[in-house]
Specification:
Length: about 260
């Protein structure tokens, strides 16, 4: 099981030099957050209290624990897992990428029904719920924008259910690769040729509901079919239309909310 650490304001802050355009301790806008208007983002980012760096394989929050903050992922990959009653097994139900609010749905209820784990080293902008409540009192129109973020998040969850429940092995992995390619492209972390994916085959197996051995076999099949390669933490897309066809992939679930600009 992942080790666990607390998020504190003593975490190493981000610097403007490391993230041009971002103020000290304030998140930059990327990925799905780019659909938030400039004016709304200025209001939202001012509610950030600090930025925390968390190492890989750290349990960030545990199912059922009281939460008084929500997190926005700036860098790295975060996983969500539903644990069994004895914590001897778990099911991955989502991955979060930069530009995602990791647990904004904990804001109205103060708790999550799953664990949140840093799959890689991550940087998280921390939004105390007290700050969010003050934000909504002063800017009630922003409530719909934050709500829309959770709607997209729920759509991603439903799409994961479709992938694991309806698709066969090779289609699952191809579909998963296509999804991450879409989302990381939005975050500026992928191009037409592929993207970095610093996950283990065990992680990929959890994401696709398969054993690491089975994942390894499917990755070989996709390579031999000249769809994509997965090697040394890098996904290289060889034939995108073919990969989409094998994975029966449609990206419309990410477009359920387009937001606004300006």
């Amino acid at each position: 099981m992942p080790r666990r650490t607390e998020l504190t304001s003593d975490a190493i802050p981000l610097t403007a030099a490391a993230h041009p355009g971002a103020g000290p301790g304030k998140p930059d806008r990327r990925g799905l957050a780019l659909r938030i208007t400039d004016a709304e983002w200025r209001v939202i980012r001012d509610a950030c209290a600090y930025v925390a760096k968390v190492p890989a394989k750290t349990l960030i929050s545990r199912k059922g624990e009281a939460l008084d903050r929500s997190l926005y992922l700036m860098n790295g990959i975060v996983g969500r897992h539903v644990p069994g009653p004895h914590r001897d097994l778990r099911e991955m139900v989502a991955l979060e990428v930069p530009g995602d609010f990791v647990d904004l749905h904990s804001f109205p209820v103060g708790v999550l029904d799953h664990d949140v784990t840093a799959m890689t080293d991550v940087e998280l902008a921390v939004f105390p719920h007290a700050n969010l409540r003050a934000l909504l009192r002063e800017h009630p129109d922003v409530a719909l924008t934050l709500w829309a973020q959770t709607v997209v998040d729920a759509a991603i969850h439903r799409y994961w259910s479709f992938r694991v429940g309806a698709l066969r092995a090779s289609a699952r992995v191809a579909n998963f690769v296509c999804e991450l390619h879409s989302r990381l492209t939005l975050a500026g972390l992928a191009d037409a040729d592929g993207f970095d994916l610093p996950l283990t085959q065990t992680d990929l197996g959890e994401a696709c509901g398969m054993s690491p051995v089975h994942v390894n076999r499917v990755i070989r099949e996709l390579r031999e079919a000249e769809c994509c390669t997965v090697r040394d933490g890098r996904v290289t897309i060889v034939n995108h239309p073919k990969l989409v066809a094998v994975g029966q992939y449609e990206a419309d679930f990410l477009d359920i909310w387009r937001g606004g600009t300006g």
